[in-house]
Specification:
Order of helices and strands: HHEEHEHHEHHEEEEHEH
Bound molecules: zinc ion
Number of strands: 9
Distance between the termini: 40 Å
Structural class: alpha/beta
Radius of gyration: 20 Å
Number of helices: 9
Strand content: 5-15%
Shape: globular
Largest sheet: 7 strands, mixed
Length: about 290
């Protein structure tokens, strides 16, 4: 116990708190014995320390097992075509819509939508466990507490676009859709200093105008999802009710008013599923 605590303290000093939650393995890149200058330990020792810290963090946050470490980000990004490999006529030049990222890495991606629940414990948990995720924010739920999401961003999470007011977009004309999507682009840029490149339509519903509008204000890709995580279950969209390499998992910023548990409870459940099936959670932005 004492050793684990010491290891965490040492790691905390070495990594600093501004580190992105990427799960790049320590060492093993400088060749045999090369090691980074000024490193405290050799790569094998660093790896062992990182593993110990992961085990300790998993224990602290009551995960069934420590999360698996994702492989390094791919050097060449996978080519993503519209609708999971099926070109849709007239959409060739529009941002691709997909539910799985083509990769053979045993990774899945965690995406968290809306922004209603702002649980400080959740931010702490994800930082300590180094689990990457991507947020899709809807301003009407977020605007009462921008600092919460600023803290999330400072921890390395990318804040993406989920419209201003979470309307059902196919019912709106092109101009109204543009207001919803591009308005949120402007808001995120103004409040968080960075313009999103990813957009997710509310409920996953969109039409041609949605994609045209999204493209017109700088959106590059439209990731949907293959599985949805709740506090006590997963909803699967595929017939085999299983995870596949590159699958995108959806969940929400929700609390006890919406489901029987907390954000950390939801993370414990989804991480058990992911880890039991032998997957690591990777950063979506590393693959796009
Ligand atoms: Zn939503």
């Amino acid at each position: 116990m004492a050793l684990a605590a010491l290891l965490i303290a040492a790691l905390g000093t070495a990594c600093g708190s501004a580190d992105p939650p990427a799960t790049k393995p320590k060492g093993g890149q400088g060749g045999e014995g090369a090691g980074a200058a000024g490193a405290l330990a050799n790569p094998a020792e660093q790896q062992k320390a990182a593993l110990q810290a992961r085990i300790a963090a998993a224990k602290k946050w009551k995960l069934a097992k420590p999360p698996l470490t994702a492989p390094p980000a791919p050097k060449t990004k996978p080519e993503i075509t519209t609708r999971d490999g099926f070109e849709v006529e007239g959409q060739e030049d529009l941002p691709p819509v997909f539910t799985t990222v083509p990769t053979e890495d045993k990774v899945v991606f965690l995406t968290i939508d809306d922004g209603a629940e702002k649980d400080p414990e959740f931010l702490k948990m994800m930082k300590e466990l180094k689990i990457p995720y991507t947020a899709f924010l809807s301003d009407y739920l977020v605007r009462d507490n921008y600092p919460y999401f600023k803290e999330m961003q400072a921890a390395g999470v990318t804040l993406n676009n989920h419209t201003l007011n979470h309307r059902y977009l196919p019912a709106l004309d092109y101009e109204k859709q543009r207001e919803e999507i591009c308005g949120q682009q402007d808001t995120i840029q103004k409040e968080f200093g960075k313009r999103p490149t990813l957009f997710r339509p509310p409920y996953g519903n969109y039409n041609q105008d949605t994609l045209r509008a999204a493209k017109s204000c700088g959106i590059k890709a439209v990731p949907l999802w293959n599985a949805e995580a709740f506090v006590n279950r997963m909803d699967w969209r595929e017939w085999d009710r299983d995870l596949h390499p590159g699958d995108i998992i959806l969940t929400h910023f929700r609390g006890r008013e919406d489901w029987k548990g907390t954000m950390p409870d939801m993370i414990r459940h989804v991480m058990k599923t992911v880890t039991d099936k032998g997957y690591a959670v990777a950063r979506l932005e590393d693959y796009l």
